[in-house]
Design goal:
By secondary structure, this protein is of the alpha/beta class. The protein contains 8 helices and 10 strands. The protein has a 6-stranded mixed beta sheet with strand order 6-7-8-3-9-10, with helices on both faces. It has a 4-stranded antiparallel beta sheet with strand order 2-1-4-5. β9 and β10 form a beta hairpin. α4 packs across α5 and α5 packs across α6. The longest helix has 18 residues. The two termini are 22 Å apart. Bound molecules: adenosine-5'-diphosphate (2 copies). One adenosine-5'-diphosphate binds next to α6 and α7. The site of one adenosine-5'-diphosphate has 11 residues, from β2 and α1.
């Protein structure tokens, strides 16, 4: 069935001029009526050039709340209807991996702290966190001994694997992959893409894979939605 459904999503920003006396001179239609569906176990590519509204769409999805306009549903439930505690519970089901692990990973935290952090809010005992962090490292193809080291000691590809491990530690069902390989050297992109493919099979995940480049999602996506100026201009089977 459908695990994530976005219907007629809109997010408009006021366009202003001036710094002290801001005058409204128009509207930026960052997202202007976007609809798509992600089926369980599938990968949907959300593709479009910079500024077309991908990040805004992702932000609205991750809010798991009533968007400015339209509807976001997870597992058939309209997120606008959730209570605060239901929303908190649903937050573990959908996790995000960002483009730049260097920017999203706190350099003062060890790999163990970074990957284990999402578990600390769930009152998981320290020993169990430590065990699960090592299992996560193995899952993403990194050595368990890396747990005591810092993110800056690793290459871009390795740091992205740490970012993936952090997203997976709470055992989500849906991953939003926001340009997960765009900041990496072309030579390491394939390794991370292959890892994501393996993890999807192994863990039964569903992916919303955001990229500015169709070439990146071509091999991994089942369906692709192409965005342009806040709208979906093409949507269907990747071929
Ligand atoms: P993408 O992720 O595809 O690069 P974005 O969602 O970041 O696109 O941006 C879509 C459009 O919305 C762009 O024109 C951007 O300048 C505009 N935009 C994004 N965030 C804001 C904001 N907070 N205020 C005003 N305009 C914004
Ligand atoms: P980078 O080249 O930036 O280090 P890679 O994505 O190529 O990033 O690899 C990250 C680490 O994971 C490397 O240490 C590599 O040896 C290891 N690695 C890559 N693929 C696998 C795999 N399938 N199984 C186990 N370890 C792997």
């Amino acid at each position: 069935g459908t695990v994530l459904k976005v219907e007629d999503l809109k997010r408009h920003y006021p366009l202003t001029k001036g710094t002290v006396f801001r005058r409204r001179i128009g509207t930026v239609r960052a997202v202007d009526g976007v609809s798509f569906e992600l089926d369980g176990g599938k990968t949907l590519g959300l593709v479009g050039e910079s500024g077309c509204g991908k990040s805004t769409t992702v932000m609205e999805v991750m809010e798991l709340a009533q968007p400015q306009s339209g509807r976001v549903s997870v597992n058939g439930i309209d997120t606008a209807t959730l209570s605060a505690s239901q929303r908190r519970a649903l937050r573990t089901d959908i996790q995000i991996v960002f483009q730049d692990p260097a920017a999203s990973l706190d350099p003062r935290m060890t790999v163990e702290e970074l990957i284990g952090e999402p578990l600390t809010v769930h009152d998981v005992p320290a020993k169990e966190i430590s065990r699960r962090v090592r299992r996560m490292l193995e899952l993403v193809g990194l050595e368990p001994s890396y747990a005591r080291r810092y993110p800056h000691e690793f290459s871009g590809g390795q740091r992205q694997r740490i970012g993936i491990a952090r997203a997976l530690v709470v055992e989500p069902k849906i991953l939003v992959l926001d340009e997960p390989v765009s900041a990496l050297d072309v030579s390491v992109q394939a390794g991370v893409i292959n890892l994501l493919e393996d993890l999807k099979q192994q863990l039964g995940l569903s992916y919303l894979f955001v990229a500015h480049d169709l070439a990146v999602v071509h091999h991994i996506a089942d369906d692709v939605a192409v965005m342009y100026l806040g709208r979906i201009i093409e949507y269907g089977d990747v071929d």
